Amino acid sequence: MSAIPLFRRLRVYYLEAGLLEALWKVLKIAPENKLSLIETGIRAVRETYQLLTPPPKAFVEAIRLYRDGHRDYIDDLYYATALFTETPFLTIDYSFMEFLRGHEYPVEGVVITPEKLQDYTKSCRG
To answer: Domain-by-domain residue ranges, the chain?
Structure first.
């Protein structure tokens, strides 16, 4: 199931660090004549979704996750931000979820998968 159609029912957040991570990947492959699409995409994200600023303790918790062995600091920061702001983190990275469980980090109520998103949207409506 695609999660994106359900976004209209929710307030969706992004981190500026997530945009930066995407740009690091895009800059390696985007030809010069397509750079305007990058600007359009960034504008669309910023106009459609809500910016979420990680609290300082989320940066520290993300470092702990990284040091515990999960080597994607941006995902670690998304998770830690979700944990401290009580804003669920949508992911398809099941190995990250297993890592969290294996290291006894809370997952329930913090991380949500696309499969669970439909149930979540129903519970949000009451």
So the answer is: 4-125
Contact indicator for 2, 114 with CB cutoff of 8 Å: yes
Lookup result for tokens 């040091």: 67
In this prediction the pTM is 0.87
**Model confidence pLDDT, tens digit, residues 80-126:** 999 999 999 999 999 999 999 999 999 999 999 988 887 777 766 55
The β-bridge relationship of strands 111-112 and 50-51 is unpaired
Residue that is written with structure tokens 């660090």 in the block: 17
- Among the residues of 1-126, which ranges form H helices? 16-26, 35-48, 56-67, 73-85, 94-102, 114-125
pLDDT of residue 124: 67
* CATH code matching the domain that covers 4-125, chosen among 2.60.40, 3.30.2420, 3.30.70, 3.40.50: 3.40.50
Grouping H, G, I as helix, E, B as strand and the rest as coil, residue 90 is: strand
The closest of 66, 67, 65 to 106, measured between CA atoms, is 65
